[in-house]
Amino acid sequence: MPGISLARLSPEGVREDIDEFSELYASDFVDPPLKGTDFYSRERFKGRLTGDYLNAPRFEAVVARDSGGLTGFIYGCSLPAGTSWWSDLVGQLPESLTAETGERTVAIIDFVVAKRSRGAGIGSRLYREFIDGRSEARASLFCSPPQQPAYSIWQHWGYEKVGESRPAEDANLLHAFLKELRAAS
Predict the structure, then answer these.
(1) Spatial contact of 18 and 46, defined as CB atoms under 8 Å apart
(2) How many CB atoms lie within 10 A of CB 6?
(3) What whole-number distance in Å separates Cα of residue 93 and Cα of residue 85?
(4) pLDDT of 92
(5) Less Cβ crowding at N or C end of the chain, within 10 Å?
């Protein structure tokens, strides 16, 4: 796609662009009825990103830029042994599904494409670039059913719902998804 460049960012690179990330997240991550809720606010996003995610093991982001600036991003990290990633799920999943080693699962934490750029294949490129640069055998993420078209895209890309979670009192119900990426080594 002409005019779109992709780049990998370390935690330091994301910190340098934190205001751009926060702006895109606040404007285009969710739509009503979730838009405008405190959980999805710019401040809460920035707090989660700088407080937890940027310090996570093997954190990495991939960004898309065009002449208008940041047009999309995806970021995540490896799930370490003893992670709380699976602990807030409603019901209990088998340990064979939730046991983490620090190398087994990449958590896709946030993925946003600017509304002005949707439908042009940028999301697919961001996702592929991110996943192709990872060594984990599987990927997991949380997504809310009202977050369309994202929810349907995850299903289309082969992610399967394995549970439900409410990560904060003021958060909506999220579905946990999981996908095998490659054979475990």
Answers:
(1) yes
(2) 16
(3) 12
(4) 83
(5) C
